[in-house]
Specification:
single chain; alpha+beta; 54% helix; elongated
Length: 137
């Protein structure tokens, strides 16, 4: 088993995968990335975010770029294009690892969102205090 890292790109946003997932081969890693992209597609649409701007850059343990999976491949597969890749159904453990990886990515993104919201609140509070000081002087 080898560890593969699924760095997530969404437009200009780029998130590096520090944990990685284990797969037996690059082909299995591709299937895991494809499955994760399918799962994330719906969530992105619910958030009113364009999945066509997303991709996974998959790296090996040495940091070498193996392949990029643009999420548009999910749409191509749904359209039934003859030249679209038709991945076989991955093994159950591959799906579970992919879902675990996606859940971790969602937790990280929620943590970042919470931190940004806290920073904005602190900034608003600082501005209010500065306004009060300005009124006193």
């Amino acid at each position: 088993m080898a560890t593969f890292f699924f760095n997530f790109r969404q437009g200009k946003f780029y998130q590096v995968d520090d944990l990685g997932c284990e797969f037996e081969s690059v082909e299995d890693a591709y299937l895991g990335a494809f499955s994760a992209a399918q799962d994330m597609w719906r969530e992105l649409l619910i958030k009113r975010q364009n999945p066509l701007l997303c991709a996974f850059d998959v790296m090996d343990e040495e940091g070498r770029h193996l392949f990029t999976l643009p999420f548009v491949e999910v749409l191509d597969a749904c359209r039934g294009r003859e030249d679209a890749p038709r991945p076989p159904v991955p093994h159950r453990h591959v799906l579970q690892q992919t879902l675990d990886h996606q859940a971790n990515a969602v937790r990280v993104m929620l943590g970042v969102s919470s931190t940004v919201a806290d920073a904005k609140a602190t900034l608003r509070e600082a501005w209010n205090l500065l306004d009060q000081v300005a009124k006193l002087t």
